[in-house]
Amino acid sequence: MASPASASSSSSSSLMWFRKGLRIHDNPALQHAAARACGPLYPVFVIDPRYMEPDRAAPSPGSSRAGVNRIRFLLESLADLDSGLRRLGSRLLVLKGEPGEVLIRCLEEWNVGRLCFEHDTEPYYQALDKRVKDFASAAGIETFSPVSHTLYDPADIIARNGGKPPLSYQSFLKLAGKPSWAASPLSTTLASVPPVGDVGRCEIFEVPTLIELGYNETEQDEGAPFRGGETAALTRMKEALSNKAWVADFEKPKGDPSAFYKPATTVLSPYLKFGCLSSRYFYQCIQDIYKDVKKHTSPPVSLLGQLLWRDFFYTAAFGTPNFDKMKGNRICKQIPWSDDEQLLAAWREARTGYPWIDAIMVQLHKWGWMHHLARHCVACFLTRGDLFVHWEKGRDVFERLLIDSDWAVNNGNWLWLSCSSFFYQYNRIYSPITFGKKYDPNGNYIRHFLPVLKDMPKEYIYEPWKAPLSIQTKAKCVIGRDYPNPVVSHDMASKECRRKLAEAYAVNQRLNGTVSDEDLKSLRRKLEEDQEKELRHTKQRR
DNA sequence: CCTTAAGTTGAGAAT
DNA sequence: AATTCTCAACTTAAG
């Protein structure tokens, strides 16, 4: 790793570039930078205005790329990182602009000899990092870019599988084995960080507040239990892991998606997304608990199994060109999804008329987080279950609004839920009525996030359109006036979706992975004709 | 290529 | 009320 170039370099300063990995503990890039620095160390975070600053044209409060909840979470994380660094004798230098451009200017201005940053497998960072690394190598700057965001190096797993990512969880597990770093305990503390040097002509900012970024709305929904930052991450993890029996018995599919004041899961995902919590440290802590208990659950359902899912999707995403698209994605079924903007808008804006679906979408807007199974319900409903809208549209909404939205995991799950890849049992459709009911028969979750329905009797809370008008009136919620009628009939729509999926699957199989635009177009035409025929038949029968 | 085994988390009925 | 069974039925990844 040590390069002779750096020893002979006239420059002695180092730059630690933070992007994800917003933490002090188990941060190999920071450790390396701190340990090897013989001059000043500049810890940098670059605010990209396109990601952070308000965009009035955006569909909901936030920037063009991120909802305000995730921006808040990121700012909190940065402020916490700054105070962590200050405790160690340093601070966080915030700069603004296009990250690649800004970083290269810093490297020049500060005469940096060593650049450290966490390796990242997302396409955005792959392109950005190549630019920066090319500059660094031409300028004789040593770079150190370790893999520490995930448990494994996706490239390594793919290489061990003959160049292709494993596409089933079980084969991933077999291939992955025990992570190489897990042989010895992680280094989770740092004694000190060398001080920052002269910043020259670079304009340095403090970590901004939302208001300073130009947001008026700074109120966070009461109850949203998530504050950004490493401190909150570690507290939250310790709290979750303090109950060893809970950890040992954890089975994700048995969690209650309607629990909101006390979620059924750890809610560590946003911290893992930004790297406020090291996935490796989390892994180590879980293993320590497993050693202490007689028996524990196993992947895929166990708590450790959840962490492995993340790596599974990171690996699949890294090894699949166009992972975030249907077209040009070799593992994605080609399906003639509809582009009905009105159905999409109804879903996005929580007015499908199905309270269980709409309540989940409200929670997404207000909290930026929902339980995993709740995400399944709305994703299934939008795509293969009811509305037959393209999974990429739903993906975009999640990507914007979730505080934990993570490129690989989010796209992977949309591929999964839409039966486009990984999972193919399109007959198994989440009912927007009965699924939530079995966890929350009284509808407390709906009453909380859709207060317009708070006085609807529990008999009708999942299907308020079935309530007699007298009851609707008494509940002060007349369907069609105070709350919408269902945008589709679930029974009819889901049958229709099943049929369309079956036909699309048949075409994909017949054409064996080479479905052209023309093929898709003619399939779409055929499906529409069939639907019309079917409608005529139903009318005749009546 | 062909065969085989397996698939995180459905719904509804029956016990 | 909670658990287990049955249903109808697939598909694909892996080997």
TrEMBL record:
Domain Photolyase/cryptochrome alpha/beta: 12-151
Sample GO molecular function, one term: DNA (6-4) photolyase activity
Top-level taxon of the source organism: Eukaryota
Cofactor details (free text): Binds 1 FAD per subunit.
Record-stated family: Belongs to the DNA photolyase class-1 family.
PANTHER family on file: CRYPTOCHROME, CRYPTOCHROME CIRCADIAN CLOCK 5 ISOFORM X1
The protein's name: (6-4)DNA photolyase
Protein species of origin: Eucalyptus grandis (Flooded gum)
